[in-house]
Amino acid sequence: MQKKDMELEGTLRAFSLPDILQFLSMGKMTGILSIWRDAYNISLTIKDGRIVNSSVLDRMRKLGEMLVYRGLIKRRDLQEVLRAQMGLDRGKLLGQILVERELISKNTLRDALKLQLQEEIWELFFWQDGQFKFEQRGDIDVSNLVVEIDIEPLMMEGSRRQDEWTKISQNLTDDSIVLTCVKQENPMENEVTLSRDEWIVLGLVNGFYEVGSIVDRSGLGKFETYRILNSFLTAGLIISKPQRKIEEEFFSTPPGGETGVATLKSLKTADSPVAETLFGAAQSKKGLSSLFSRPKPTIKETPQSSIQLDFVSPLGAAAFFVNSFYESLMATEGFVRSPEDDNIMLAFNWRNLLMRHPRADLVRITNGRINAKPLENIIQIQEGISKIISECYDETLVTLNELIALLHQIALERLGDKTLSRIANSALNEFGANIRYKHDERFDFRTWVQDLIKI
Fold first, then answer.
1. Torsion angle in degrees (nearest 10) through CA of 247, 250, 253, 257
2. CATH class entry, domain 172-241
3. What is the pTM of this model?
C-alpha cells in the first residue's frame, strides 16, 4: 500500500476491503474510496469514517427496478419519473423525485437504499483480487444525505455472513437454480412455525422463479433470502427442480409445428387452425367477438396488401408483432446459427426476462411463441385495464419492450443494419395504417415499434 498526499491505493489481494474500511473508520477519514475489478466499479463516499453515499445509489434504473420488484412503487410511476429525469427534473436523483411526488416516503427510501448499499458492500467482502484507491477530500457535500452507515457493525455483519455463506453456497450454488415445494404427506403432523420473512420467501417458491428472482422480489436482500431458502432445503420443505424438467415444461414443442398463436404468416393462411382461435390475440376489421365464441375471422386486405387487425389492447398488438418479427427473422438467410437454440429463442429470452419482471407472467409461451391471450382475456372480461390488472399490464409492456430490443440486437449482429431495417419495416407495414384497440386507444403502436428498433 502506498501513501502519498493522503492518497491510499493498492490491490485487494494484499489488503482486503474490511481492512481498508477499518483503517478509514479508525482514522475518521473523509474522502472517496474507489474499488474496481474488470468492468465493475464502485465509489464509496466516506465522511468522518462513515459511509454516506455510493455510486451504486446513483444508478437510477437499478434503484428503480429494485423499488418496483419489492412493490414499493408502480412500474408506470417509475417510467414517468425516469422521463422526468430527462426533462423537467433533469439533474435530480431518482429517489428525490419519488419523495417529492409522494410516491414513496423518505424513511422507506432510506431503508431501501441502505439495504441496497449494504448488500453491494458485503458482496465486495468476498473479492480476492481487484484494485482500490482512496482520495482524501475535505469538500464532501452531505446536504442531500439519505444513507449513513457505521463501518464497524457493517464489518461485523459482513464477517458473520462470510462464515455462514460457505455453508449456504454448498446447497445453493448460483442464482439460476429453480426450487419447488415438497408435498407434505401428513401436513397436520409436520406442522412448522415460520416467521414473517420466512413466509414471504416460501410464498415465492413456485417451481418457476429462479433463486435470483426470489431474491429480487423478497425485499430481504440476497444473503437473508439465501439463508432462509437453505434452511428450507435442510428441513426438506423444498427441493431443487431438475434442469431437464424445467426445459420440458417451458421449451417443449408438440409435433406438427403449429403454435396456436397468431402471426402474420398464420393469418395469411385462410384455413389455418391458428386463424380459428385468434380471440385474445387479434381479430379482423369486423370487430371483436364475444369472449366465448371464436368464429374464423375475415382477413381484410387493403390495396397495399396490408392486413388490418383489431386488438383487445396494445399488448395483443405487441405480442403479435414480436411473433411475426421473429418468424421473419427465422426465415431470413443467415439469421439461424443453431436451429436447436434459435427455435426456442423467444421462449429462452422470455423466461429470462420473467425472472426480472415477474408480474409479466400472465403472458406465456405457447409452443415457442408469445401468447398474450390469458392477459388479454382478463382485460376483456373486466372491460378495460382496471386497477387490479394495470400493474401486470404495464410490466408486461415493458418486458415486451426488452424482448423486442433483444431480438433487434441479435438480428443486427447476424444480418447487419440494412437487411434488418428491411425486415423490420416490412413486418411493421404489414399491419397497415389503422391498427385499433378496444382499450388504451392512446397508445401509438407504430411509434412504439419505431423507437424500439430504430426504423
1. -140
2. mainly alpha
3. 0.71
